[in-house]
Amino acid sequence: MKHDLKRGALLLASATFFTAALNALQKLTGSTLPALEIIFFRNLFSLPFVLLIAARTTIVLRTHHFGGHLLRSVVGLVSMIMVVITVTRLPLAEQQVLSYTQPLFLVLLSIPLLHEKPSLQRWIAVSIGFSGVVVVAMGKGLLHGAAGTVAHWAYFVALAQGAVGALTTMQIRQLSATEASTTIALWQAILMTVMTALPLPFIWTTPSMTDAACLVAVGAFAGIAQVLQTEAFASAQVSAIGPFAYSGLLWAGLIGWFGFGEVPGVAMVLGGLLIIGSGVWMLRHDRPAQKQAAVEGTMDTASGTQA
Predict the structure, then answer these.
(1) Domain EamA, which positions (predicted)?
(2) Which own/partner pairs from 61-65 qualify as long-range (CB within 8 Å, at least 24 positions apart)?
(3) Where would I find the H helices in 176-289?
(4) Which of 36, 56, 65, 155 has the least C-beta neighbours within 10 A?
């Protein structure tokens, strides 16, 4: 793989911008439209971009692990619902920083599910990361019952979404042992579109012209982010450009500040630095082989965009 750090970093940072932008649009539409309706259009309008990625190699839908794809899509759908719920109720930067707990939960889940034994460095990183969560929680008074304008349960849902996102990543890694990355992405997009289409007649809320435009943009931004992430991890090693994935916090903070008047607090910034620092530490400590990193990085970030 040709290693172009500058190109890979720029593409990944751009991908995080589109992800932050689609979360902002989900925040706008989430107050008037059902979460499943938003997610249906997100998957529907992102499908052309998934096909674009697949067409670069070979579009393969044949699989001997349909059950695995179905389970992965169900878990991914739950993760998407949790994202819509939390971005609707939390400041964008706070939702974003809590989503960065995914690598921490990945370490914890690897013990019972993959029978792995995390190294001492990983345990230190996990401890630092969750201490960051505590700092964010203390800043919001979640640990001592202080009243606030945001429901406390929304923060717990955001934290739980990190665990569910870690589970989807683990499922993708298991599927990628026998399935092509494009096959996984295609089945995910197709199954999620179908699953969210089924309840539409019962929950349908006719969107306004503004909401309709936002729904199209949500799907387009999700697809663009996935294309950019794929190109980024095809351009450089995951261990080299991975930290640029955390630039999403900058975009979320700026969009939240100027778009919604959400000014990040000191506790959120300090907690975010601890969480992000733990993730970067684990990323630098692992440094997987270039080829395997490219494959896993593409799939992990594609999962992040979809879920």
Answers:
(1) 7-137, 153-280
(2) 61/183, 61/186, 61/187, 62/183, 63/179, 63/183, 63/187, 64/178, 65/175, 65/178, 65/179
(3) 181-197, 200-203, 209-235, 238-241, 248-260, 266-286
(4) 56
Nearest to 255 by CA among 16, 24, 18, 14: 24
- Residue-wise pLDDT for 142-201, tens only, equals 655 544 566 788 899 999 999 999 998 888 888 888 888 778 888 988 999 999 999 999
What is the reported pTM?
0.84
> Binning pLDDT at 50, 70 and 90, where does residue 265 land?
confident
Query: Which is higher by pLDDT, 50 or 45?
Result: 45
Into how many domains does the chain fold? Answer: 1
- Dist CA 299 CA 37 (whole Å): 25
C-alpha distances (whole Å) from 65 to each of 8, 62, 95, 102 are: 32, 9, 33, 25
* 199 in Cβ contact with 36 (< 8 Å): yes
Residue 209 token pair: 């012209």
Contacts with 172 (C-beta within 8 Å, 6 or more apart), sequence order: 72, 184, 299, 300, 302, 303
Domain carrying residue 242: 5-306
Cα dist. 295→29, 146, 230 in Å?
A: 34, 45, 9
Segment 62-83 mean pLDDT? 92
